[in-house]
Prior knowledge:
The protein is an alpha+beta fold. The protein has helices at 46-67, 114-129, 167-188, 195-211; strands at residues 11-16, 24-29, 35-40, 78-79, 84-88, 92-94, 132-133, 143-146, 151-153, 160-161. The chain has a five-stranded antiparallel β-sheet with strand order 1-2-3-5-4, covered by helices on one side. Strands 6-8-9 form a three-stranded antiparallel β-sheet, with helices on one face. Strands 7-10 form a two-stranded antiparallel ribbon.
Amino acid sequence: MEPTISNRSVKKTLLHKGGFANAKIYRLETPDGEVFIEKDFSGCSFLIRNTIGRFLIRREVHYLLRLEETGVVPGKARRIGSFCMRETFCAGQTLREIPKPNPKVPGSENRIPVAYFHALFNALQNIHQSGIVHLDLHNLRNIIVSADGTPVLLDWQSAIHTRLLLPPIRRLLENIDNMGVLKAFDKFHPEAMNDELSQKLEHAKKIRRRFWLPRIHLTRKDAKK
């Protein structure tokens, strides 16, 4: 476990003030130019930080380390004490921040290439094959178009292992992930949705309607981060 960066040597900016059961989120910039995101539950109540806080920090670092070689999660994830973690800051824009292209509005051309969504979907399938589901990809703030144009998936607090689950349950959870990504694909590039991807999206929609699958959150999500 790495030591906490000294406050004397780092520029620390609060990005999200947290809440009753949510971590505070900071942006850290070190003197040598490295930039990190830090999630910290230490400001929560004793009960929250010693239950939810410990659990979620340990959980998220576990998944980030396990998936680091995929290249689609933030790197250098570390626990910083019992209630705090740090990961590399990923420069870019979330899919929530990028407006949907509108051919009727001049200057609103699509800024995301089709190849980005193919790379995103293929990366997600590889993650599923490794026995992990994200479960919060309907929240487009968790999907980034990085500075070099590659996809990055954030916020692994809701993720779970699927290896020991029954196949129908595993496929059900994988469809939750697929639906989030394919809806984003269809939003930005409906013309590029081939028959196979369109069928996968419709299948995921039917399952969601049939089972009334909610977005899965382990902690309350604030309207803004």
